[in-house]
Design a protein that fits this description.
The protein contains 5 helices and 20 strands. A hairpin with a 2-residue loop joins strand 13 (234-253) and strand 14 (256-266). The protein is an alpha+beta fold. The strands form 4 sheets. It has a 6-stranded antiparallel barrel with strand order 2-11-14-13-12-15. Strands 3-10-8-5 form a 4-stranded antiparallel β-sheet, with no helix packed on it. 27% of the residues lie in helices and 39% in strands. The chain has helices at residues 3-26, 92-127, 133-165, 295-299, 303-316, and strands at 32-37, 39-55, 58-62, 67-72, 79-80, 85-89, 168-170, 175-180, 187-188, 196-201, 206-214, 226-231, 234-253, 256-266, 277-294, 343-351, 356-367, 371-376, 383-391, 407-409. Among the domains are: 32-42 and 290-317 and 324-409, conserved putative lor/sdh protein from methanococcus maripaludis s2 fold; 91-166, Orthogonal Bundle (Helix Hairpins), CATH 1.10.287.470.
C-alpha cells in the first residue's frame, strides 16, 4: 500500500469521526429528570431566635448613702443569705451626725420643759388676776412651738440613725454574688442614683432566656411550647426549655421590631452561666409519621412552564394592576407554612412507561426548611421531580474538556 493511499484513508476516517461528533453535539439532548420519592417521616417546624441567659431573679445591691468602703464580707461567687452583712461603709461621719441630733433633741426637750412651766405659771397668775390674758396666750404659743421643735429634732435624730444604719449593707435575698463593683477604700457617691455594689442572683439552678423573636414570627409563638437551644460554650450539646411568657413590649433596634419571649431553663448541673448567648429554636408544630417531600420539588418548574409564567407575570406587572407574584409561579419558594395551615402547590411526578412529567396539585402543611408535609395529592412511593439533567451538556466556563460529556442540573 502506497504512502499516499494511507494518508488518504487517515483523512477520510478523521473527517467521518469529526462529522459524527458534530452531528451528535448539535442534536437536541434527551431530557433526564432527577427525582426523589415521597416518603413517610417526621416534620418539625421551628422559629429561630437569639437571646441571653439570665437569672430568674437578679437583684442589684446598692448604697443609699455616700462614703468610703471600709469592709467587704463577700466576693464573686459567694453564697449569701437574706439579711447577711455584705459590706460596711465608714460610719464615723454618720455617728457624729447622730450625736449632734441627740444633743439638739435634748436641747429642744429642755426648752419644752421651760415653756410648759412658764405656761403653768401664767395660768395661775391670770386666775389670780395678777397677769394679763395676753401674757398667758404668749406663753401657750411658746409651749406649742417648743413641742413642734421637739418633734423636728426627734425626726432629725431618726434620720441620722437611719443613715448610720445604712452604713452596713445587707443581702436582700438568698442567692449567689455574680458581680462585685467596688473594692475596699473606694468612695461611693449616692447623689441622683444609688451606686451598685453587688449583683446577686437568686438561684442559678433555674434560669431564663430572653429571646428576641422577630415580629413576623411572634404570632406563632405561644406559652408552653418546647424550646431547644445551644450555647457557644457547649457546641455539641442541646439544652431544653419551655416558653413561659411572650411580652407585649416591642423592642426596636435599627428599625427591626422584636418581642421578648421568656423561656424557662432547668440548670441543675450549673453548666449555663448568666450572660451566655443562646441560639434558640422554638418548636411551633410537629407532625410524626406523615408524607413529606423535599422543598426542591416545590421550587422545580419545567422550562416551558417557567417561560409561560414569566410572560404572564410581565403582562400583569402594570402600574394599575396588582402584583401577581405568587410563591411557586415563577419558581421561587413560598413562605413557610404556619402551624399547620394548608396551601395548594404544584409539583411534577413521572408516570407511565414513558416516564412523562405530569403536574399535580397538592396541599401542603408545615415545613422545616428541608422537607414539607404533604396533606393530600400524593402517595407514598411516588417520584417527584426535583431537578432537570441534560446529558452531554456543554461544559461550564469554570473549565473542563470541550470533548467531554457530562450531566447538567437545572
Amino acid at each position: 500500500m502506497s504512502k499516499g493511499l494511507i494518508i488518504g484513508l487517515v483523512v477520510i476516517v478523521a473527517s467521518s469521526s469529526g462529522g459524527w461528533w458534530y452531528l451528535k453535539s448539535t442534536q437536541k439532548p434527551e431530557k433526564k429528570y432527577q427525582t426523589e420519592p415521597v416518603l413517610m417521616g417526621d416534620v418539625k417546624q421551628t422559629v429561630t431566635a437569639t437571646g441571653q441567659l439570665n437569672p430568674v431573679l437578679n437583684v442589684q445591691v446598692g448604697s443609699q448613702i455616700s462614703g468610703n468602703i471600709q469592709k467587704l464580707f463577700v466576693d464573686y461567687n459567694s453564697p449569701v443569705k437574706a439579711g447577711q452583712m455584705v459590706a460596711q461603709l465608714d460610719p464615723s461621719i454618720y455617728q457624729a451626725l447622730m450625736h449632734q441630733a441627740q444633743g439638739d433633741l435634748k436641747s429642744a426637750q429642755a426648752s419644752l420643759e421651760l415653756a410648759a412651766a412658764t405656761a403653768d405659771r401664767k395660768k395661775k397668775l391670770v386666775a389670780q388676776k395678777t397677769a394679763a390674758q395676753a401674757d398667758l396666750d404668749s406663753a401657750l404659743a411658746a409651749l406649742h412651738q417648743a413641742e413642734a421643735l421637739v418633734q423636728i429634732k426627734q425626726a432629725n435624730l431618726e434620720r441620722a440613725q437611719a443613715d448610720l444604719d445604712h452604713c452596713t449593707i445587707y443581702a436582700p435575698i438568698d442567692g449567689i454574688v455574680i458581680s462585685r463593683s467596688v473594692d475596699v477604700g473606694q468612695t461611693v457617691a449616692a447623689s441622683m442614683n444609688a451606686p451598685v455594689l453587688f449583683t446577686i442572683a437568686n438561684d442559678l439552678h433555674n434560669m431564663q432566656i430572653d429571646a428576641n423573636v422577630a415580629e413576623g414570627d411572634v404570632g406563632t409563638v405561644e406559652v408552653g411550647q418546647n424550646v431547644d437551644f445551644s450555647v457557644d460554650a457547649y457546641p455539641y450539646r442541646i439544652f431544653h426549655g419551655k416558653v413561659t411568657q411572650v411580652r407585649n413590649a416591642p423592642l426596636n433596634v435599627q428599625n427591626v421590631v422584636t418581642y421578648d419571649a421568656v423561656i424557662s431553663v432547668n440548670n441543675s448541673d450549673l453548666k449555663l452561666k448568666p450572660g451566655m448567648t443562646a441560639n434558640v429554636s422554638i418548636n411551633i408544630a410537629q407532625r410524626d409519621g406523615i408524607l413529606k417531600i423535599p422543598n426542591s420539588a416545590l421550587r422545580f418548574r419545567l422550562p416551558e412552564d417557567r417561560k409561560k409564567a414569566e410572560r404572564s407575570t410581565a403582562k400583569a406587572a402594570t402600574p394599575a394592576a396588582p402584583s401577581q407574584k405568587e410563591g411557586g409561579s415563577n419558581g421561587t419558594a413560598q413562605p413557610q407554612q404556619r402551624g399547620g395551615s394548608k396551601m395548594t402547590r404544584t409539583v411534577y411526578v413521572l408516570e407511565g412507561e414513558a416516564q412523562k412529567p405530569i403536574s399535580v396539585q397538592i396541599k401542603v402543611g408545615i415545613g422545616d426548611g428541608i422537607s414539607t408535609e404533604v396533606i393530600e395529592g400524593l402517595k407514598e412511593g411516588q417520584n417527584v421531580i426535583t431537578g432537570l439533567l441534560i446529558p452531554n451538556a456543554a461544559p461550564s466556563s469554570a473549565g473542563g474538556s470541550p470533548f467531554g460529556g457530562g450531566m447538567r442540573r437545572f
